[in-house]
C-alpha cells in the first residue's frame, strides 16, 4: 500500500487530470497551450505543493502567532544546473506580524524553520531528493534513479 497515491489520466494531447482517492482533481497542461487553460504545469504543481505543505505545517508550528493573513509565495528563482530541472526555489512567507507582540517575529521564524527542517514532507523531499522508479505496463522497471 502506498503512502500517497495520485492517478493522472490523459484528457487529450498535452492535457491531463490528476485525481486523488478523495475525489479532488487538478488540470495539468502546457503553459503555451491555450486550449489547456486554466491548468497548472507540472512544475507549478511542485511549487504549489511546497506552498501548501508549508502552510499546513506552519498552522501547527507557528500556531502561537496570529497568521490568518499569511500568504506563501513559492518561486523558481534561478536556472538549473542542468536541463530538465528547477534551479533554486524561494519560499516567501508574507504577512504583517501582530502589533504589540514583541516576540511574534521570533516565534514565527522558529515555526518556519521547523517547517522546513523537520515537518514539511514536500520541502524536505525536494531538498534532499528521493529515489524515482518508472514501471512499465508489464511490471518491468524502465528507469530507476536517485
From TrEMBL:
Gene3D superfamilies xref list: 3.30.300.20
GO MF terms held by the record: peroxidase activity
Keywords: Oxidoreductase, Peroxidase
Superkingdom of this protein's organism: Bacteria
InterPro entries according to UniProt: KH_dom-like_a/b, OsmC/Ohr_fam, OsmC/Ohrsf
EC number, as in UniProt: 1.11.1.-
Pfam families given in the database record: OsmC
Keyword Coiled coil: no
Keyword Plastid: no
Name the UniProt record assigns to this protein: OsmC family protein
Entries under SUPFAM superfamilies matching the protein: OsmC-like
Amino acid at each position: 500500500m502506498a503512502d500517497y497515491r495520485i492517478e493522472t489520466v490523459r484528457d487529450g494531447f498535452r492535457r491531463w487530470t490528476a485525481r486523488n482517492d478523495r475525489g479532488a482533481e487538478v488540470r495539468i497542461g502546457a503553459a503555451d497551450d491555450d486550449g489547456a487553460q486554466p491548468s497548472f504545469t507540472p512544475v507549478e504543481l511542485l511549487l504549489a505543493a511546497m506552498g501548501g505543505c508549508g502552510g499546513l505545517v506552519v498552522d501547527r508550528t507557528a500556531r502561537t502567532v496570529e497568521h490568518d493573513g499569511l500568504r506563501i509565495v513559492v518561486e523558481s528563482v534561478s536556472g538549473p544546473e542542468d536541463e530538465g530541472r528547477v534551479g533554486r526555489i524561494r519560499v516567501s512567507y508574507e504577512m504583517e506580524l501582530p502589533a504589540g507582540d514583541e516576540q511574534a517575529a521570533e516565534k514565527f521564524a522558529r515555526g518556519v524553520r521547523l517547517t522546513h527542517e523537520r515537518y514539511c514532507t514536500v520541502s524536505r523531499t525536494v531538498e534532499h531528493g528521493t529515489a524515482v522508479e518508472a514501471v512499465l505496463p508489464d511490471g518491468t522497471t524502465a528507469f530507476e534513479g536517485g
